[in-house]
Amino acid sequence: MFKTISDAADCEVRSVIRFLNANNIKPAEIHRQLVEIYGENVIIDGMVRKWVRQFNDGSTNVHDEARSGRPSVVNDGLVAKVNEKIRENRRFTIRTLFDEFPQISKVVLHEIVTNRLNYRKLCSRWFPKMFTDVHRTK
């Protein structure tokens, strides 16, 4: 019995596919071995065939190709401006920030405040997450 590997990276699985394909193992057998080692949800059989076909066509890249996507509106300058507005008024709401920055959605503003700036809501004021419980009670 083999040891099961969980949380395998996609490039790792593709490297195994490339190796087994180089040893002239059929895609169905490659899929069976992958499921045996990595578990049921590792990769579907059609994806094994796709990668075997790509490797047979001469591809050697096992990593995901860069994709064009929607560019992020969040940059360091914007985060600094939002932080400046927060420091002006600690009793802000996401809605009042939205009035100051109408080009940014409320969801993105909330993400900037909570994830990038690490603020948490405490009563009606926002505090950085690094405050301890003693600081919050003061």
Task: Summarize, please.
With 138 residues, the protein is mostly helical. The chain has seven helices and two strands, in the order H-H-H-H-H-H-E-E-H.
CATH topology term of the domain at 10-57: Arc Repressor Mutant, subunit A
- The helix-strand sequence is HHHHHHEEH
Sequence of strands across the biggest β-sheet: 1-2
Question: Strand count, sense and closure of the main sheet?
Answer: 2 strands, antiparallel
The helix-and-strand class reads mainly alpha
Q: Determine the fraction of residues in helical runs and give it as a percent range.
A: 40-55%
CATH architecture of the domain at 10-57: Orthogonal Bundle
Count of extended strands: 2
User: What percentage of amino acids are in beta strands?
Assistant: 5-15%
User: pLDDT under 50 segments (min length 5)?
Assistant: none
The coarse silhouette is elongated
Rg calc: 25 Å
User: How far is it from the N-terminal to the C-terminal residue, by CA?
Assistant: 59 Å
Number of helices: 7
Organism: Araneus ventricosus (Orbweaver spider)
Protein name: Mos1 transposase HTH domain-containing protein
Domain Mos1 transposase HTH: 14-58
InterPro entries: Mos1_HTH, Transposase-MT_Hybrid
